């Protein structure tokens, strides 16, 4: 029984690497099943977001390198390149890492609330794939409880600052008056919903939501008085857009250099501010080469969130302490569970010996034996049988010089309780 957490994130790998290691929602079930089939992983879950791709595993014997090789092969990556930016956490460290991630302590934006929901989704997908068993399942539940406690007992979740907020804050720095600006939002997921809310609260003149399905775009647009269009309408809307923020799950770029170049000509080279939050990227990197485009990726938001980090350091310290306690408590409970099978077998053995001696006593009573003699025989027989196997093993261990085992036996059987050290020594 061993836990393993490994992967890459915004601190160890560039967006160029992260987008190549990212899993699509459609890939996850098959990838999880393949991971368990081709490695020594008995249980597995995958968390894949714009900032990280992580694998959470339960193995009999830890084998991180084999898992990393599988990950590289799955995404057709060079193993050495992946290994150079990957991190590996084992057992207690793996448990603590998962709890830190779920609590937002390992996020680009410290304390971001979205990551907990993303981890819950990872757990749900792993259950769907049939790759979560009792051990990893317990770890996920402990992780969720730890994250909930961090949110409840610390100030880390107050006035939550998300990547979406950071993107809008960057737009505020560039545009002195957002109320005169028009915004094009590409996607209709949680991140774009947050972006729309922030832009709406700031009084942005016009907001357009573009999505693969018009129904989902309309549902989002209605909340903020925005307009809904299809992805195919982006070129026309781009002409009127001062702000473009994109976050989809597309595996291919949605917005190319040619389309932006054409829009700039019609805008008479009026600048466009763009933020590509998606991983893999929605906007071709070459778009950033255009003179009148200011293109930022999720990695460019570090400066924006620096103040967030400063303001939350006190809460972060308290959260780290709670996570450490949560991780330690989980490992203690897990080690206790490891004894359950042994205790069950020991109890079954004791009950079997009890039943054998009881049946023997009942037969003696039926044959007319003296009840007092029967009880004495029952007590003697049961005691001898219960002590036989431990006595044999202790003599064997003693002959082998295993004094540690003898000391453990004394503690296990509480031989020193209620007697002096000298009397205990005599008994041994």
TrEMBL record:
EC? 1.2.1.70
Classification via Pfam families: GlutR_dimer, GlutR_N, Shikimate_DH
Residue ranges annotated for the Tetrapyrrole biosynthesis glutamyl-tRNA reductase dimerisation domain, each copy included: 318-415
Q: Where does NADP(+) bind?
A: 187-192
Residues that hold substrate according to the record: 49-52, 107, 112-114, 118
Any idea which GO molecular function terms this record carries?
glutamyl-tRNA reductase activity; NADP binding
List the residue(s) that the UniProt entry marks as the site Important for activity: 97
| This protein's UniProt keywords | NADP, Oxidoreductase, Porphyrin biosynthesis
* Domain Glutamyl-tRNA reductase N-terminal per the UniProt entry, residue ranges: 6-154
Q: Which reaction does it catalyse?
A: (S)-4-amino-5-oxopentanoate + tRNA(Glu) + NADP(+) = L-glutamyl-tRNA(Glu) + NADPH + H(+)
Q: Quick one: signal sequence residues?
A: none
What the entry says about domains is: Possesses an unusual extended V-shaped dimeric structure with each monomer consisting of three distinct domains arranged along a curved 'spinal' alpha-helix. The N-terminal catalytic domain specifically recognizes the glutamate moiety of the substrate. The second domain is the NADPH-binding domain, and the third C-terminal domain is responsible for dimerization.
- Cite any additional comment in the entry: During catalysis, the active site Cys acts as a nucleophile attacking the alpha-carbonyl group of tRNA-bound glutamate with the formation of a thioester intermediate between enzyme and glutamate, and the concomitant release of tRNA(Glu). The thioester intermediate is finally reduced by direct hydride transfer from NADPH, to form the product GSA.
How it assembles, according to the record, is:
Homodimer.
In Swiss-Prot or TrEMBL terms, this protein is called: Glutamyl-tRNA reductase
Its source organism is: Pseudomonas helleri
Annotated gene: hemA
């Amino acid at each position: 029984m061993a836990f393993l957490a490994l992967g890459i994130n915004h601190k160890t790998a560039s967006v160029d690497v992260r987008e190549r290691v990212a899993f699509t929602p459609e890939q996850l079930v098959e990838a999880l099943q393949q991971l368990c089939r081709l490695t020594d992983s008995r249980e597995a879950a995958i968390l894949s977001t714009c900032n990280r791709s992580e694998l959470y595993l339960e193995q009999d014997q830890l084998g991180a390198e084999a898992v990393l090789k599988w990950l590289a092969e799955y995404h057709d990556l060079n193993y050495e390149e992946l290994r150079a930016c990957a991190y590996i956490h084992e057992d207690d460290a793996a448990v603590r890492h998962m709890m830190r991630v779920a609590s937002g302590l390992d996020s680009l934006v410290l304390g971001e609330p979205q990551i907990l929901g993303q981890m819950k989704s990872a757990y749900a997908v792993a259950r769907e794939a049939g790759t979560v068993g009792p051990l990893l399942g317990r770890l996920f539940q402990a992780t969720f409880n730890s994250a909930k406690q961090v949110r409840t007992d610390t100030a880390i979740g107050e006035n939550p600052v998300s990547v979406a907020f950071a993107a809008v804050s960057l737009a505020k720095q560039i545009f002195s008056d957002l109320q005169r600006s028009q915004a094009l939002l590409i996607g209709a997921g949680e991140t774009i919903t947050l972006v729309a809310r922030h832009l709406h609260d700031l009084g942005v003149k016009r907001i357009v939501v573009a999505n693969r399905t018009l129904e989902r775009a309309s549902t989002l647009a209605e909340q903020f008085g925005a307009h809904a269009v299809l992805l195919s309408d982006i070129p026309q809307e781009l002409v009127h857009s001062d702000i473009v923020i994109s976050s989809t799950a597309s595996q291919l770029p949605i917005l190319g250099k040619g389309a932006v170049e054409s829009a700039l000509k019609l805008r008479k080279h009026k600048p466009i501010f763009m933020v590509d939050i998606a991983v893999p990227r929605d906007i071709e990197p070459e778009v950033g080469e255009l003179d009148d485009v200011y293109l930022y990726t999720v990695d460019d938001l570090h400066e924006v969130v620096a103040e967030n980090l400063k303001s939350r350091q006190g809460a972060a310290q308290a959260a780290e302490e709670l996570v450490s306690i949560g991780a330690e408590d989980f490992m203690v409970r897990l080690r206790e569970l490891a004894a359950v099978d042994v205790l069950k077998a020991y109890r079954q053995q004791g009950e079997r010996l009890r039943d054998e001696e009881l049946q023997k006593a009942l037969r003696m009573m039926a044959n007319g034996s003296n009840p007092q003699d029967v009880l004495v025989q029952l007590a003697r027989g049961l005691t001898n049988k219960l002590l036989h196997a431990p006595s044999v093993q202790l003599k064997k261990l003693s002959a082998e010089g295993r004094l540690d085992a003898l000391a453990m036996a004394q503690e296990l059987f509480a031989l020193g309780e209620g007697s002096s050290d000298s009397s205990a020594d005599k008994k041994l």
